Amino acid sequence: MLDARPRHALKGMFINGQWVPASRTFPDINPNDGSLWAEAPDGGRAEARTAIEAAHAAFAGWSELKFTERAHYMLKIADIWERRVPDFVAAAQAEGGGWFGKGMFEAHYVPEVFRAAAGACFDAIGEVLPSEHGKFSTAVRFPMGVVSVISPWNFPGILTSRGFAFPLAMGNTIVLKPSEDTPYLGGLFFAEVLEEAGLPAGVFNVVTCSRDNVAEMGNELVEHPLVKGISFTGSTPVGRAIAAKAGAHLKKCCVELGGKDSLIVLEDADMERATQAANFGSFMHQGQICMSVEKVLVHESIYPEFLRRFVERASKLKIGDTADKGNVIGPLINDRQVARVKGQIEDALAKGAKLALGGGVRGRFVEPTILTGVTPEMDVYRDETFGPVVPVIPFKTDEEAIAINNDTEYGLSCGIITRDEARALAMSRKLETGMCHVNCSSVNDEPHVPFGGSKASGLGRHGGRWSVETFTETRWITLERGGRHYPPMF
């Protein structure tokens, strides 16, 4: 019988620089074994409202700080986070169900997000425009105010930091709501780090809630009149609803959503590189990445060899409890996701697809699964999987590969494996994706790049100056120096 006592103690929500004990909690589960990892604070509209008001009250002071002071805070956050890498990795294995290597990558990536945000404080925030009237004419960016951040469970360190680091560095204040599946990794851990960094009270706030209260808290974070911008990373259905609400209230938002990303392997591909890119892109973190490879498109002339070598490579991935560092394939995050992935496998097999590898489901653990014979009427061809399942589909021409890639409502990322860079660049211009990576998998990210998708994969861009553009407002300011005259009748 599993121990019913929580393994990790949470202090409460973090509002206005204080830890607020919860009047009620919800179970924060270790997906490896279903044990209780922590009791998480279960808030609602009232807690969200209090946090928003605290952030609004702190905005004037934070936005008026010298840009160098905000940069120093970002660097301090990075240093504290770096010191706490072991704490984050341990939680990533338990609360997040992630492989040790995934946790290490994520933990060491996050400090660079804050360092990039510190660097952005030194970038230009405006420009001088020509004026036919001799004015000194400028366009200057200013922070907006309170930005609400709603972050996901799959990469809670990277995707949370990306959502708020640049807006915070520019002088906005933050109210963060992490996923109910990772309230610590995606929220309360950040609160611990930023509290230690000494940010002024109210500048950064974290509110958490159970799945039952997500709609109530989420609506407040979007609709409250003091919230000026929304940063969301998550599923396309929820992102559509948030973008619609933001539009109704004339608020800026950046939503990074789902994907059905392809890896296109041309006939001149380096086979070692191609199979490794497919293996990593399809099965890293059990395929629970918005950029995961969800279709491998292979030129028909190399299809048999590629499939054989891909299956051979993927079959070596070890499955099991991520407390064991050797287990690369851990559990899916919850039972709902398992049911979704299992349903796609069963649908594909019922409609004529074949298993080249895997297909087994044991509890929350799904074997790395490679399918052949997948056709457009199958769910796995059309819908995002978000699990360790990938079809391998042959094609004859570049145009056919482009058409298969574009045959989806999504358009986040893709990869092309070829020795001919000019050919890949020509293809990239026709691929309906926000990102394209030549001789690499679709899974790529850096703190300073324009990250985001097209079509149903999102709106706006995170990262670097693109985050700055999204979460600031532009003002036109002029100085009259040319003696512009008014009409004489005035």
List the helices and strands and how they pair.
Layout: E1 13-15, E2 18-20, E3 25-29, E4 36-41, H1 45-63, H2 67-83, H3 85-94, H4 100-120, E5 126-129, E6 136-143, E7 146-150, H5 156-169, E8 173-177, H6 184-197, E9 204-206, H7 214-223, E10 227-233, H8 236-248, E11 252-256, E12 261-265, H9 271-283, E13 293-299, H10 303-314, H11 335-350, E14 354-357, E15 361-362, E16 365-366, E17 369-372, H12 379-382, E18 389-395, H13 398-406, E19 414-417, H14 421-428, E20 437-438, E21 458-459, H15 464-470, E22 472-479
Parallel strand pairs: 7-8, 7-10, 8-9, 10-11, 12-13, 12-19, 13-18, 17-18, 19-20
Antiparallel strand pairs: 1-2, 3-4, 5-6, 6-22, 11-21, 14-17, 15-16
From the alpha-carbon coordinates, what is the Rg to the nearest angstrom? 24 Å
- By CATH reckoning, the class of the largest domain would read Alpha Beta
Largest sheet: 7 strands, mixed
CATH T-level topology of the largest domain: Aldehyde Dehydrogenase, Chain A, domain 1
* Span of the ends, CA to CA: 87 Å
**Domains (count):** 2
Low-confidence stretches: none
Q: What is the helix fraction of residues, given as a range? A: 25-40%
Number of strands: 22
User: CATH superfamily assignment of the largest domain?
Assistant: Aldehyde Dehydrogenase, Chain A, domain 1
Structural class: alpha/beta
Q: Could you say what the CATH architecture of the largest domain is? A: 3-Layer(aba) Sandwich
Strand order of the largest sheet: 14-17-18-13-12-19-20
Percentage of residues in strands:
15-25%
Tell me, rounded to a whole number, the average pLDDT: 96
User: How many individual helices?
Assistant: 15
Report the principal-axis shape.
globular
